[in-house]
User: Fold Universal stress protein UspE from Haemophilus influenzae.
Amino acid sequence: MKFKNILVVLNPSNEKQYALARAVRLVEEQKMKLR
Assistant:
């Protein structure tokens, strides 16, 4: 599992996934604030 994580970190496309995950988290936080 650790080796797999290292490969993901070395993968440049991981930056896009990280940005996408951050965007999703921000949207979820905004939804909670609206409630």
